[in-house]
Amino acid sequence: MTSTQHRAKQFQAIKGVRDILPPDTVLWNRVEQTAHEVFSTFGFGEIRLPIFEPTDLFARAVGGETDIVSKEMYTMPDQETAHIYALQRSLVEWDIKSGDFQAAESFQQLAVSLLVFIMRAQQENLVELEEAGLEAVNDLTSAAKELQVLISGRSGSAHAAIWNQVAGLVERIRLASGGLVVGDDLSLRPEATASVCRAYIEHGMQTLPGNVKLYYMGPMFRRERPQKGRYRQFYQIGAEVLGPSDAPGIDAEVIEMLLAFFERLKLKGAVLHINSIGDKNCRPAYVERLRAELQKVREQLGADSQRRIETNPLRVLDSKLEHEQGIIEKLPRIADHLCVECRAHYDEVKRQLVLRGITYQEDWRLVRGLDYYMRTTFEITAPGLGSQNAVCGGGRYDGLVELLGGPATTKGIGFAIGTDRLVLSLQESGAGEVSGGPARSAGGFDVYLAWFGAAAQTAAIGLARRLRDAGFVVELPAVEMKFGKSLGLADRLKARHAVILGEDELAAGVVAVKRLADGTQQKLAEQDLFSYLRAVRNG
Ligand code: AMP
User: Fold this and answer.
1) 3-state class of 20 per DSSP?
2) In this structure, which of 231, 269, 331, 395 has its CB flanked by the most CB atoms within 10 Å?
3) Residues 6+ apart with CB under 8 A from 5
4) Reduced to 3 states, what is the DSSP secondary structure of residue 243?
5) What is the torsion angle, in degrees rounded to the nearest 10, for the CA atoms of residue 84, residue 89, residue 92 and residue 94?
6) 526-537 in b/e burial notation, b at 16+ Cβ within 10 A?
7) In whole angstroms, what is the distance from residue 69 CA to residue 59 CA?
8) Please, is 34 exposed, middle or buried when counting C-beta atoms within 10 Å of its C-beta (0-12, 13-18, 19+)?
9) DSSP code of residue 63
10) Is the CB of 17 inside a 6 Å radius of any atom of ligand 1?
11) Distance CA 73, CA 224 (A)
12) What was the pLDDT predicted at 441?
């Protein structure tokens, strides 16, 4: 069979994942560049984080019960330890029949292989065993040795007599290898706050003066049902403030920065929603009241809300189901159940927002379903996004760093902007115009440099370089074309000018410049060409 008989398989991006193409990428870059500029004026530094982390980090930080962790993460075994897991599984699952010495011998050899792999992984620093792990390895080693001695030393007549001992050792090996944890699963990050906190602790940033202000941008991964504004690989731009102070002025300044960013981008119609969800002193009592009230109306609720009465009653307030709205409106509100400290903190956040001239809408149903979120929560909605109209979510999470093993005194607040949705909203509102960027479909080509003849090509290569050095966008044909075809391509590429370089121009030390909009043409020396193009560029 020749290769032409095969139709090559056509690949497509996987479901919920997409390419972002020019000219959209020009707008993406502008958005990201604006974030760099605005956030740095507030004293935030950029942190670049890994895209995958131990699954456990997200399970602990985001919460094992949440949809994000329980259903939506892309999780994989670490390749380095995958074969160790495979051997462990074989040992645990191998059912050896009574008196089957041959199987017991193979089982013993498998246990030795497992030990060899673990040793090698340790030598290469791929795994680090804690005390319990080391004990399990020691037990495994001695049981495997004893088993080998027993099996190789057995004499024909004593078979039955030693089987019990063999079976006992097999069981010991099985238990020791089953309980041995040598590595962690990995997950693509569904969000970045957990990673920022991990990095804060790992690099001892609590010793830095004041609160630490960090921002990040990049892709996140959640296996959600794709729709407009909801993707499985989506992008976030986020910021976090971590450190000893939880002053309400910090909350307000974080929000101010966010709004300054949106304003710089000319995002229209953004609305700030805020709420306070209390803390561990006052929220549990409120949650219990809410649960009790929800129990009374249980039968009128949908399946999701019914389930959440037990797992996470606050999340019922998130419900968008039409028929639940009337019921939810009558439920007790957290604002009426805040403790004195939380009430004072919330009042001061609002006062600090007013000081900054920021208008807000209070939304008592704005909750975060995670335990460590507390006090201030906020969200920004923008038009043009349909049902997925939140471009940004944020809140205070004073307990998170402690939950991840860091100092208990560390407070935290942050937000994450959905970049895909922000870009969509900018485009829908007409604020996404792209111009001036050095990209072909954005600003278009300043010059299409048509050359004719080998000598002209050499000159054209040099001229193209000097034009590009001066910041002009230049298309230089890679092969020689007939005049008409070459100029036709210049038209189709929507270049502003064709600069023509043939033998005559070369001999005369000039180029012919044709303005493609109206076909006017003139001959210019190189120096004059630059002045002319600069004048056009500066309008
Ligand atoms: P969260 O991390 O869930 O608080 O989300 C913060 C922001 O990220 C939201 O307000 C959205 O703008 C955006 N976002 C979350 N999930 C997705 C997704 N699957 N696709 C696109 N944007 C998302």
Assistant:
1) coil
2) 395
3) none
4) strand
5) -110
6) eeebeeebeeee
7) 6
8) middle
9) I
10) no
11) 9
12) 42
Query: Phi and psi for 417 in degrees, rounded to 5?
Result: -95, 135
* Residue 381 Cβ contacting ligand 1 at under 6 Å: no
Q: Is 222 in the pocket of ligand 1 (CB under 6 A)?
A: yes
Closest by alpha carbon to 221, among 20, 528, 14? 14
What is the C-alpha separation between 224 and 17, in angstroms, rounded? 11
Pocket lining: 78 vs ligand 1, CB cutoff 6 Å? no
pLDDT at 312: 85
- CA distances 448 to 169, 395, 457, Å, are 80, 51, 13
Strands 52-54 and 186-188: antiparallel
Q: Which residue minimizes the CA distance to atom 20 of ligand 1?
A: 230
Q: Are 255 and 378 in contact (CB under 8 A)?
A: yes
CA 429 from centroid of its chain's CA atoms = 26
pLDDT tens, 237-273? 999 999 999 999 999 999 999 999 999 999 999 999 9
| Whether residue 23 has a cis bond before it, omega within 30° of 0 | yes
- Residue 188: which H helix or E strand, with range? strand 186-188
Indicate which atom in ligand 1 lies nearest the CA of residue 421: 12
Cα distances (Å, whole numbers) of residue 74 to 1, 69, 234, 236, 368: 39, 9, 13, 17, 22
Q: What number of other Cβ atoms are within 10 A of residue 255's Cβ? A: 25
* Nearest in space to 213 (alpha carbons), one of 46, 374, 20: 46
What is the pTM (predicted TM-score) of this model?
0.81
Q: How far is the CA of 231 from the centre of ligand 1 (A)?
A: 9
β-bridge pairing 212-221 and 233-243? antiparallel
Q: Is 390 close to ligand 1, i.e. is its CB under 6 Å away?
A: yes
Secondary structure, 3-state, 133-166:
HHHHHHHHHHHHHHHHHHHHCCCHHHHHHHHHHH
The helix/strand/coil state of 447 is strand
Nearest CA residue ID for atom 11, ligand 1: 418
Residue whose token pair is 């402690």: 402
**For residue 442, pLDDT beyond 60:** no
DSSP class of 8:
P
